[in-house]
């Protein structure tokens, strides 16, 4: 089955044919690699595009710059991105800037990570985690 993958850079939806390695695929619009081993910073609009169009699972880290545990977890989240891509798309949403999205997601504390598949929430974790813990948690939910 073809995959639909939203570009982490320009948020264009790309169709990646079945059997073609997504790890090396480039965006048809901005020509950047679809997966560079980094999380992608999203706003409300690009967040909705990822959740609505990606056929791969999408993990979002809801954080804020003033939150010490969020900043402490950032390197672990990047390490998890290197590990989980291109099976999973990793996003970061700044809840200070995108308060309406944070409210819609019923975020009570940060950092909170939410895993989506097919537009639906399938898992949620609050509190900082190590890279290994993030990877294990995600792999459990989307083997
Ligand atoms: Zn692009």
Automatic annotation (TrEMBL):
SUPFAM superfamilies: Thioredoxin-like (SSF52833). The keyword Disulfide bond applies. InterPro entries: Thio2_N, Thioredoxin, Thioredoxin-like_sf, Thioredoxin_CS, Thioredoxin_domain. Keywords: Disulfide bond, Electron transport, Metal-binding, Redox-active center, Transport. One of its GO terms (biological process) is cell redox homeostasis. One of its GO terms (cellular component) is cytosol. NCBIfam families: PRK10996.1, thioredoxin. Belongs to the thioredoxin family. This is Thioredoxin. It comes from Rhodopseudomonas pseudopalustris.
């Amino acid at each position: 089955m073809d995959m639909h993958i939203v570009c982490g850079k320009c948020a264009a939806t790309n169709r990646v044919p079945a059997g073609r390695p997504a790890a090396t695929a480039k965006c048809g619009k901005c020509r950047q690699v679809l997966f560079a081993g980094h999380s992608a910073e999203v706003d409300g609009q690009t967040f909705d595009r990822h959740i609505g169009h990606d056929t791969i699972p999408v993990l979002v880290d809801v954080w804020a710059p003033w939150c010490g545990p969020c900043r402490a977890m950032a390197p672990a989240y990047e390490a998890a991105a290197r590990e989980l891509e291109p099976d999973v798309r990793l996003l970061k949403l700044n809840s200070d800037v995108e308060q309406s999205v944070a409210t819609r997601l019923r975020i009570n504390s940060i950092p909170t990570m939410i895993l989506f598949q097919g537009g639906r929430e399938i898992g949620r974790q609050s509190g900082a985690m190590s890279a290994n813990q993030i990877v294990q948690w995600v792999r459990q939910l989307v083997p």
